[in-house]
Amino acid sequence: METLLTSRPSVGSARAIARSIREGRATAEAVVSKSLERAAASEAVLQAWHAFEPELALEQARRLDRQPAKGLLHGVPIAIKDLSDTSDLPTAYGSPVYRDHRPAMDAACVAALRAAGAVVLGKTATVEFGASRPCATTNPHNPLHTPGGSSAGSAAVVADGQVSLSTGTQTGGSIIRPAAFCGVVGFKPTFGSIAVAGTKSYAWSLDTVGGFANSVADVSLLFEAMSGHERSRFDESDCRPPRIGIFLGPFADVAAPSTVDALMRVAAACSRAGATVREIDAPAIFRHTLEWQRAISRYEMGRSLLPETRAFSPEELGEVLLAEIRAGQAVPETSYIAAKAGASRLATELQSLFADTDLLLALSTPGEAPFGLASTGDATFCLGWSLLGLPTLNLPAGTGPQNLPLGVQLVGPRYGDECLLRFAAWVERVVSDA
Amino acid sequence: METLLTSRPSVGSARAIARSIREGRATAEAVVSKSLERAAASEAVLQAWHAFEPELALEQARRLDRQPAKGLLHGVPIAIKDLSDTSDLPTAYGSPVYRDHRPAMDAACVAALRAAGAVVLGKTATVEFGASRPCATTNPHNPLHTPGGSSAGSAAVVADGQVSLSTGTQTGGSIIRPAAFCGVVGFKPTFGSIAVAGTKSYAWSLDTVGGFANSVADVSLLFEAMSGHERSRFDESDCRPPRIGIFLGPFADVAAPSTVDALMRVAAACSRAGATVREIDAPAIFRHTLEWQRAISRYEMGRSLLPETRAFSPEELGEVLLAEIRAGQAVPETSYIAAKAGASRLATELQSLFADTDLLLALSTPGEAPFGLASTGDATFCLGWSLLGLPTLNLPAGTGPQNLPLGVQLVGPRYGDECLLRFAAWVERVVSDA
What we know:
The structure is a homodimer. Chain A is of the alpha/beta class.
C-alpha cells in the first residue's frame, strides 16, 4: 500500500537527526538551517506559521552545539502549536485579541521538550482557541483543501517535511483529523498523561496535549520527551502481532465507501501478517458519544473563555465566537453531568473489550480533506475517543479518490499508550510492506 | 454545641450583604469600606493578604453602585487565593520568583465571580505554589498557631470576619484543613466542576477550585457563582434528614480522641434530629489512598513546575522546592499509572456506598491547628477524598482542648455537590441548635 509520506522531501526523521547530532555527523545549527529553508520555501502557500523567528531558532541551535548531547531530542527542530505558551515567542492562541501576547513562562510541554534538547522553530497556526474560526493554513497536498483543525499548522509543517515533530492538542478531533487530512501520524495520548500547565484551556475534562510526526517511532519519541521520561523505551521489535478489533461504530454510514475500504485493506494486511482480526459491535450507548462530547466541550468552553468576554469587546471577539461562548454557558448543568455519567459508564463497558483486544481499528475521518478553507472538516469519528480519554493514533493509509491522504485510527486502553505505540509501529510496518 | 463563628465580629453573610445592596439599604462602596477597615485592623498580626489595593476595590464598588444589581453577588467583597490570576492585581502564586508577575487575564473562576457582581478585595497569601513553603499568615484564633494551608489567607480572612467569601484550591488538603483550623466552612466541589483556566496548575488530575464562607448557605452561593449558574437554586428547606455514614477509615488512630468525640457529638445530634446514622467500614484498599494521592500529586507537580526550574536559578527557587520538583520528576511512571488505576477502582467501590447513604461524616484533621508556623499541619484525612475527586465540606464542630476550632468533614458522591450542600445546611442547623 502506497503512502504519500515517502514521496515528499523531508528534513528526515527525528531519530535520525538526533542520532547524527549525537554522533557528531551533524550540528544542530545545520539541521535548523535546513528546516528554516524548507519552511521559507513553502510558507507563502502553506501559511502554517504564526510566529517564526529564524535568528532565535539558530541561537538555540548554536547554544546546543556548544553542549554535550544528552537529551532525547538534542538539536531536533520542533514546531509548537500556538495554544501552548512560549516565553520567547508570541502566543496568540489563534486569536486576533491576543496578537501582542507574550507569556511570562513556557507551557509545561514546551519546557519538557526544551529540557530534552529540542529547538523550538516557531509557533504553528491554529483554529482560534481551538474553537471554530479556521486559520489560513492550507493542505500541503493541495492548497485548495483544508488541512483539518484545530492543529492545522502543526500537521501541515510535518507533512511538508519542514520539521520531523510538532505538538498538537485535541479536545474533539484536533489532532487525529488534521493528521488524517495531511497524511501524517498524529497521536493523542491518554487524557491527563501530559501536563497542561501553560496550554490554553478550552474544555478541562477533554483537552489533551499530543503531536505529529512522519512515523510511529518518531511520535513515540515526542511522547516520551513530553512525558518527562528519562530515556527512550520505545522498541518495536519486542512486539507480537496484535489482536485487533475492527470498530466501525454507529456512525459508519457517514464515511465514504473508499474510506471504509482503506480501513478494510489495513485490516486484511494485518491479518495476513499474523494479527488476530475480528469485528467489534459497538456498545449501544456509543451512539450518545457525539452529544455527550459536545455537551461537555461546550459547557466547559463557555466557562474557560468567560474571562475573554469580559476583557474584550464583542467587536473584538467577533459574533461567531461570542455566540459559541454564550451557547456553552447556556448548556444546562444537568446535561453536562448526565454526559459525564454516560461517558463514565461507557468507559467501563469499553475497558472490558480490551481484556482480549490490543487495539481497536477505527475510522479517522469520513474521507479525504474537504475542498475549501472555511471548515476544518468532520470530527465525528474522533469525538467518542476524546470523550473517553483513550489514547488514539492516526496512521496514514493510502489515498482516496481525489489523491488526498486517508488515515485509520488505532485506539488503545486508558494508559496503554506505550503498548498502543508499539502495536501501531507493527501495523505501520505491515501497511508499508503491503 | 457552641461554634466559634457566632462569637466573632464580621461583615455579615454574603446573602445578607447581597440582599441589602439589592434592596437599596446599603451601597457596595459602604460594604467594601467596612471590609477594608476590618482587614486593616487585623493585617499586622494576621498577614493574610498578598496584594491589597483599597482604592482599586473601592473603584469596583462605585462602578457597581452605578449599575442595577443583577448578579448573585452584586457588591459583595471577596478574597481571591493568590494561585488564581487577576488582571488588575499582582499574582505571585505565593512565590518570590513571581513577585512582579502581572497576568494578562483573569482566571476563569475570578471572571465568573466578577460576572456575578463580586468585588475583588485582594489576593490572599498561599503556601508557595500550593507546595510546602508556608506563608506568613497566622491563625485568627491564636497567632502562634498555623492557619493550615495551602489556602491559608483565604481561610483566615473569612474566619476573621473581613469578608464573607473567599476562594481556595485543593489538591491534597488545601481547603478542608485550613477551614478546620480556622473554624470556617470550606467547600471543595467535585473535581472538574469549576473551570481551572488561569489558576496555577500543580497536579492537573487533582487541582480543584473551591472556597470558604461562614455558613453553608454562603458557600453555596459562592459555588453557584463560580459554576456560572444563572441564579441561586440553594434551598435548604426542601431537605429531609440525611442518611449519614460515619466514615472513620483506616487512619483514625492518627486523630486525637477529642477530635473523634467532636465527630461523634455531631453524629449523635443528627441522629436525635431524625437522621439515619450508621458506621461504614472503609473498603480495604482505602488505606492506599495516601500513597496513591502522593504518587499522582508529586508526579504531576514535577511536570507542571518544570518550566520554573528552567526559567529561574536554583538559588531563586530554593533548595526545598527544587528538591520536591526533582522528587516528583523521579516518581516512576508505573507508580503513577498504578495510583490512577487504584483510585479508579476505589471510586467505583465507594460509589455504590452512596446508593443508600446521602453523605459520609468523616474527620477533617487529626486535631486543632498545631503550634507554630513552620508546618501547615496534617492532611491525612483530606488526601483520599481529593484523590477520588468527591465533593467535601468542612463544617465547624466546636473547639478542642486548646480552645481552637475543630471541624468535621461531610463527603458526597461525585457531582452530588448540590445535594451535599443541602444536607450540610441541615447538619449545620442541627449542630448549631444542639
